[in-house]
Amino acid sequence: MAHKEPSSTDLDARYSDPRAAAGDWADAVTRLTEAEVFWLSTVRPDGRPHVTPLLAVWQRDALYFCSGERERKVLNLNENREVVLTTGTNALGEGHDLVVEGEAVRVTDEARLRELAALWECKYGSAWHFDVKDGAFGGAEGPALVFGVTPRTAFGFAKSPYGQTRWRFA
């Protein structure tokens, strides 16, 4: 499936092995699609950071995540929609880490939510089945709001050889 290409791709020589090449965005999209756990960083109303692990799906050039409407991350998003999502490994010499920066935009269209709910279940299994109701995912704990993050800037951190790529999107 075609994806939006970055407007610029840069390898930062300061943090890259001389043998490294700029990462390919198509490879990063594959990694974002296949990754199981992401870390979401938001900002509390008093300016302190908040980071939490969560599940996410990649589709249509964006990462999507969900959260209960009273959870800290949603309370933070009510004040500041700027987020960072990260995924990768905790190994030093292998793997690839990715960082996606952008604005978290709430998804309320029920047809779109049903499509995303099907993606969640396909990726994570039947334990992650969601019904759609009133512009949110329905669950045992109450509604889960869904947000999409289209990358404004993304970073790829290769580990063998070390390389730091920055992708910017218009």
UniProtKB/TrEMBL annotation:
A Gene Ontology molecular function term of the record: oxidoreductase activity, acting on the CH-CH group of donors
Oxidoreductase in keyword set: yes
A Pfam family that the UniProt record links to this protein: PNPOx_N
A cellular-component GO term for this protein: cytosol
InterPro entries assigned: F420H2_bilvrd_red/Heme_oxyg, Pyridox_Oxase_N, Split_barrel_FMN-bd
Keywords, comma-separated and alphabetical: Oxidoreductase
Residues of the Pyridoxamine 5'-phosphate oxidase N-terminal domain: 29-152
Name listed for the protein in its UniProt record: Pyridoxamine 5'-phosphate oxidase
